Amino acid sequence: MPAISAATGAAPPPGKVVVEDIYGFLRVLDDGTVLRSAAGPAFCPATFPDSHPSVQWKEAVYDKARSLRVRMYRPAAAAAGGNKLPVLVHFHGGGFCLGSCAWANVHAFCLRLAAEAGAVVLSAGYRLAPEHRLPAAVDDGAGFLRWLREPRRRLARRGRRLRPRGRHR
C-alpha cells in the first residue's frame, strides 16, 4: 500500500481537545466540531495514474442541491463502435466517513475496471459522516440509482441511448 498523507490544517482552537483523529483526514473535537482535511490524500502518481489509454471519462453532477457528483468511465473502443455495454455502479469505500469518487485511488481503480471489464463504470459520490449522519450516504446512493433509472426509461421510449445529464427526479 502506498504511503498517503493529509493534514486538517490549523490546530484545534484553545481549550478544545481532539477525541478522534483518522490519519489527519478527519478530526472530531470534544464539543462535536468536525475538522476535515480540505485536500484529498497525496497518492503516488506511478501507483495511481490519472488516465488510461483505452478509457474515456467525464464528471457530472447528479444532485445539484447537494453538490453530488458522478464520474463516468467508458472503454474508448466501445465509444467508437457504438456497442451496448454492461454498466457497473461503484460506491467508494471509507466507512461513509472518508473518500471521494475523485480521489486518485478510486479514479485509477475505475479506469482499470472499465478497461478490463469492458463496461461502463459509474462512480457516485455521497455525503460523508459525521457531518451528515447515516442514513444520508445510503439515501444518496438510492438517489443516484433513481437518477440513473429515470432518464433511461424516458430515453428507451424514444429509442435513444442513455446519456445522463444533470439531475432528474
Tags for this entry?
169 residues; alpha+beta; Rossmann fold; 4-stranded mixed sheet; 3 helices; globular; disordered N terminus; disordered C terminus
Query: What order do the helices and strands follow?
Result: EEEEEHEHEH
- At the fold tier of CATH, the topology name of the largest domain is Rossmann fold
The CA-CA distance between the termini, in Å, is 40 Å
What share of the residues does DSSP label as strand, in percent? 15-25%
CATH architecture of the largest domain: 3-Layer(aba) Sandwich
The figure for the number of domains is 2
Overall body shape: globular
| Overall pLDDT level | 82
In the sheet with the most strands, the strands line up as 4-5-7-6
CATH C-level label of the largest domain:
Alpha Beta
- Extract low-pLDDT stretches: 1-6, 153-162, 164-169
How much helicity do the residues have? 25-40%
Round the Cα radius of gyration to an integer and report it.
Answer: 18 Å
Largest sheet: 4 strands, mixed
Topology:
Blueprint: E1 18-22, E2 26-29, E3 34-36, E4 55-63, E5 68-75, H1 76-81, E6 87-91, H2 104-117, E7 120-124, H3 136-158
Parallel strand pairs: 6-7
Antiparallel strand pairs: 1-2, 2-3, 4-5, 5-7
Task: Report what the structure shows.
The structure is a single chain. By secondary structure, the chain is α+β, with helices and mostly antiparallel strands. The protein folds into 2 domains: 42 residues, no CATH class; 104 residues, Alpha/Beta hydrolase fold, catalytic domain (Rossmann fold, 3-Layer(aba) Sandwich), CATH 3.40.50.1820. The chain contains 3 helices and 7 strands; from the N terminus they run βββββαβαβα. The strands form 2 sheets. It has a 4-stranded mixed β-sheet. A hairpin with a 4-residue loop joins strand 4 and strand 5.
